Structures are given as C-alpha cells and as structure tokens.
Amino acid sequence: MYVCSCFGVTEEQIKQHAESGACTPRQIASQCKAGTDCGGCVRRIQALLGRGGCPRRELLDRGRPAFGASGPERGPVADEAPARLPDAA
C-alpha cells in the first residue's frame, strides 16, 4: 500500500528503512523523500514508526528484528533481565 503518493513510497519501504535504523519521519525523508512534498503522509509515517524513543534501534543493536508480525516492537524485551548497577563499596 502506498504511504507517500508524491514519491511512490510504500508501507513496506518505510518498514525497510525503519529496520535499517530510521526512527523519525525526517530520517525516513532523508532516505526516500517520503513526507517532503505535500506532507500528507507524515502522520502515517509517524504511525508506522511508533511513538517515544527508538525501540527499533535498540532491537537492531541486540541483533533482533525491528518489526514483529503485528508491527513495531514496543517496550522491553521479555527474556532479558534489567541491567544492574554495581554495588557501591
């Protein structure tokens, strides 16, 4: 499905750019121009990217896929314990 009709950018292309590390509509625009002409697709791009930080970047840094079957991953990864700070002596 087309997200940006001005430049013919599809939802799949947006997801591929996000999997490569793009976390904001501006980063998407720098890779494929989506959102730089009429701007009508920027909200859809934001929806595809999700809100908050860049969970895709965190997952990529861990060697995990950035998108699951139902869309972008959100929240902490369930099988990892939170990092602990060393005890102060």
Proportion of strand residues:
5-15%
Order of helices and strands: EEHHHHEE
Gross morphology is elongated
Low-confidence stretches: 69-82
Please count the beta strands (DSSP E, at least 2 residues each).
4
Q: What is the terminal separation in angstroms?
A: 58 Å
Mean pLDDT: 77
Report the helical percentage.
25-40%
Tell me the Rg in angstroms. 16 Å
Number of helices: 4
Largest sheet geometry: 2 strands, antiparallel
**What structural class results from the helix and strand content?**
alpha+beta
Strand order in the sheet with the most strands: 1-2
Describe this structure in words.
- With 89 residues, the chain is α+β, with helices and mostly antiparallel strands.
- It is 36% helix and 10% strand.
- The chain is built from four helices and four strands.
- The protein has a two-stranded antiparallel ribbon with strand order 1-2. It has a two-stranded antiparallel ribbon with strand order 3-4.
- Strand 3 and strand 4 form a beta hairpin.
- The longest helix has 9 residues.
- It starts with a strand and ends in a 17-residue tail after the last strand.
- About 16% of the residues have low confidence.
